[in-house]
Amino acid sequence: MSLAVLYSRALSGMEAPLVTVETHIANGLPSFTIVGLPDTEVRESKDRVRSALQNSHFKIPAQRITVNLAPADLPKESGRFDLPIALGILAATGQIPKEELEQYEWAGELALTGELRPIRGALAMTYHAAQSGRRFVLPEQNALEAALVKKATIYAAKSLLQICAHLTKQERLPVFQSNLPEDIDDAKKDYPDFEDVKGQGHAKRALEIAAAGKHSILMVGPPGTGKSMLAARFPGILPPMTEDEALESAAIQSLSQGSFNISEWKRRPFRAPHHTASGIALVGGGSYPRPGEISLALHGILFLDELPEFDRKVLEVLREPLESGKITISRAARQAEFPAHFQLVSAMNPCPCGYLGHPSGKCHCTPDQIARYRGRISGPLLDRIDMQIEVPAIPQQELIRQNAKGEKSAAIRKRVEKAYQRQLDRQGKSNNQLSVKEIEQFCTIDSISENLLKQAISRLNLSARAYHRILKVARTIADLAGPEKITNQHIAEAIQYRRLDKQ
Question: If you placed Cys at 80, which of 16, 103, 119, 471 could pair as Cys (CB 3.0 to 4.6 Å)?
Answer without folding.
Answer: 119
